Amino acid sequence: MRIKTLLSTVILLFGCLTLQAQNAELSFDSQDSKTSEIQESPTSRASKITFIDEDFEGGSLPTGWSVQNGGSSWVISSDNSNAYWTIPAHTTYASILDVYEPGFDDRDNPDTYIATPSIDFTGISSARLSFDCFYEAEFAGHWRVKLSTDGGTSWSEIRYLEDTADVWQSELIDISSYINNEPDVKIAFHFSDTSDNNSTSQPTAGFAIDDVQVFEPSNNDLGIESIEPTFAVEGSSVTPTIALYNYGTEAESTWSVTLTDGVSYNETVSDLATINSDMEYIASFPDWSPTEGTYTLEAIVTLTGDSDATNDTLRTTANVVQPFSPNALAGNGQSGNYYEITLSDGSLTSVGSMPTSPINMGEEYAADTTIYRINYIAELYSVNPLNGNTTLLTTLSGLSGGIPVGIAYDWDNDLMYIASTDGSSTNYLYTIDLDTYALTLIGSDNASISGMDFANDGNLYATDLSDNLVQISTTDGSVTTIGPIGHNASIYHDLSFDRTNNLLLTIDQTPNGTKYGYYDLSTGAFTEIASLGGTWDDITFTHYDKPSAITFSVTDGSNPLAGATVSIFGKELTTDESGEATTNLLDGDYNYTVDLAGYDQATGSVNVSGSNQTVDVVLNETTYTVTFTVTVGTDPLQGAAIAIDGYSDIVTNASGQATIDLPNDNYDYTVTLPGYDDYTGSFTVADGPETVDVAMTETLYTVTFTVTDGSNPLENATISIPGYSDLTTNASGVATIDLTQGTYDYTVSLAGYNDVIGSFNISSSNVDVDVTMGETTYSATFFVNDGTDPLEGATVTVDGYPDLTTNASGNATIDLPNGSYDYTVSLVGYDTVTESFTVADGPESIDVAMSETTYTATFSVTDGSNPLQGATVSIDGESDITTDASGIATIELTNGTYDYTVSLANYDTVTGSFTIADATETVDVVMTLSIYTATFTVTDGANPLQGATVSITGESDLTTDASGIATIDLPNGTYDYSVSLDGYDTVTGSFTVADGPESIEVTMSETTYTATFSVTDGSNPLQGATVSIHGESDITTDASGIATIDLPNGTYDYSVSLANYDTVTGSFTVADATETVDVVMAQSIYTATFTITDGSDPLEGATISIDGQSDITTNASGAATIDLPNGTYDYTVYLSGYNDSIGNFTIADANLTIDIILDDVGIYDINANGFLVYPNPTRGIFYIKTSKLQTITVLNAIGKVITSKKVNGKETMDLTGRSPGIYLLRLKSGDKVITQRIILQ
What we know:
Low-confidence stretches: 1-47, 100-107, 195-203, 1162-1166
Structural class: mainly beta
CATH architecture of the largest domain: 6 Propeller
Distance between the termini: 89 Å
Number of domains: 11
CATH superfamily of the largest domain: TolB, C-terminal domain
């Protein structure tokens, strides 16, 4: 970005310098002293351990956090922006600013830290640090994240943040390599600008952090980071994407994510890729085609075993707008390029160039269809939108400060506004008369703006150099701040309002590149639509109405017409020699007229809609109507074609009329109509309409009949045509008649011949009709068969007539007159038949039965040397035959080629073919005995066994290979086998080979022996003890303390467990014999410790009697112990001079301490000392009545105090809800103590 100077004012931008020490020792104020340090304990958050979870919403430095200040201090606030650096909204956050004065000499030069409380990572080997941050690095920056493992004495840098965070960024750091098992870890965020302390360099702006988390990652945690798009245009499809992040430690390949817009779009994609730990993946969805509106997009990721549900769902708002105005222009004064910009996606099309100097300050389109551009030295230009060319209109004078900073047109009031500055942060607002260019001052305010435009609400909006959206009053020029735009705006950028979608659009060079988008008019927030390539500055941006070139092309239909006058939109255009005239028009509908002497006027309209176009206009000469009337006699003729030289044919209608418009001239014409003679003539058009009458004559055509019997003419045949006189053929068999066009029926008759009926059609020529007449005949039908089935293809010869051939039905038919006829029927493979028949005034049927010729086929079947009896010979289409003792079988067959199959049990089937060809045939067949493979597969149930011996009766032994397989070839039969292998039980069985290979699966079992466990307590058997043997199912002892299991040879580890007994472990070996394992279990013993006191001092010598146990006595510390197994025990404690204490206790898998307080003897008489306790026993409520101040204490059976209070008079006590049993009531008055038991039912 270029840095420009506005008069004497320097525009300041922020940067930061390099921190020298990478591992500087940090010292903190008293909040971080070792004595006041807080050790923050981990908390469970959605199934993951979270050590730090700080969002700063408390509004002050959180407990346990600490700061070390050098210059400016960290501030906890929801808005810590200043005039030089804008922090986007992010609820409450912690931030540090480098505060300074414009001269650069009075800067704070901060070097400051904010640090977390100490974190105990004992037992933790994996952890992550996540936080949101915002910082600027236009001139360098020093924002570091550091970690200490000694409570803040020394620090290691774990992240150096570079470049610029134009918006809040989310960071995730794996700190596992630093914190492994460390008990005293702190994390600090360090901002430094101490190396930049001279007035000629630029400072950094600051550092902001929020939402700091330190957590132990879970194995499975897939979360959603973002949803796109947040902006779309109606009518276009967009591809939604969701950014997924794997926060867990395991790679994830089986997952799904669903996206919905809450209306009609609901799509799920799954398992698109494997997402590794700490990796992001962008999931793409099917296209979304929304209509205009605001949508809440919701994404939900689903992962089996996901430990953190808080990041599985994300919602974002997507703004869908109507299609933008089609025309907008953008200028880049940095490169000198002038573009047409597509507002829906920011794509650019070059239309020309623009000057790079002086600086361009803005562009605006007005109602007079002019684009106005103002530059840095107040020159006002008009701009041609089609090529970027400019025309200087004026140089404005009278602007305060003389430097324009914005131009905007008020469409509601037809006013153009210009803003200027005097270089001292004062903004002036003017109106300008676009006819005289006179300026009128509206007012001023203390602000520095860049770019402005009017919105649909009639208000004037701009951005200021503090990166805010502002509103400028058109009444007095005052400036009101709306809110931050969320990024550092370039000094020279421009705004343009899209009235279709009510969006304030902008092109701005931000620290993250050139951005095209829009501002929220209520908050100022910027939404990006697209990123534009390259560096932009001196930016201009405006909507406009784009004119189109409209060309009129005037012809007479084929030739261009020069000199024609085109009238459109108040303009008169004249066509050139090419018949063309061109004008530029804005979008809209326009009427036009075209005039030329000697031609009719042409009128029309043209719609201009954003593109150049040519309007074709055809001018016609002045004409008059010529009417033709075509008749035959008095009847009109439809369809007559009238041809006039140089014009298209016209055709008469049902009234026999046709019209044509013609200019003055003499014309020749011809009228034609099928069936009528052509008619020719001429006429003249002379300044008026003309009528032409045409009378046509039908055409006659000669029809010639020729009648024969097929070879000879037939005389005197009668030809009858309905509506006409009969005709008679002459000696040549000919008769003629003249007829007009049409279709005619006819009948031809002659004695001794069959009548012939037909029709003919006359279209446009003479017609010949040939008629062949036949004598009367009768059908003679031959049926040829083999005695049962018809025979096709037999030849039937009748003397004097052509041969006939029978069809698939065995039939052949011939038409014959009366008479006697000899015939012969022949067919290959059959004996010829010769007979005769007679036709006598009717049809005749002749049945012919034929016999096939057969020959002997002899089969001789052997095994190569010996004949084989009983072999079955199958021949296609014939009955099977069987060989005799000599291996011979015969069959009678006709000529032909035959396929055969010879089969015999236990022999391979033989197939072949042979041919009978007018002789006997012998077929020799040799058969081979059948052999099949038997395959043994030997396993232990899971794995193959090598080296097993397979013995088959009558065969050689086999041995299995490494795959446990052994094979042998055998003929059909049943076989016994045995399989043996050292260490395994022998397996026997049988199998049958039956016409195919055989597979025998053999499963061998290792030889096992019984291991018997005998479990006792040393004298008595123990039932229910669980015996666990590695690799085997557990077994349980019976009432005799016995449990058995069958095991193969080997050494085995075991453990024996039983409730209330110590677990016993050991090992044993099975070695080709049964094995007995004796196990003696000891009961589990726990220590019960009694502590006896008088309420303050231990009591020595107290005797404790426990049912079933020896008495024990307290020592000088008042303690006595006894070892006991689990159970509930009653006890009594007594000591001379003290009241006895009675109670019980329970040993339950743990040592136990029983505290007992004994009371002095002689002071328990309640009534004698003025006490009354009732009722006793009680169900919960009981009362104490006393005549003087007493201290009442209630204890449970093991001496634990339940309650204690002072009583004077009557007091209610309540044990409701406590366990039923014996409670002790101790009453103390002065130095006397009385104890009484209270029974709670």
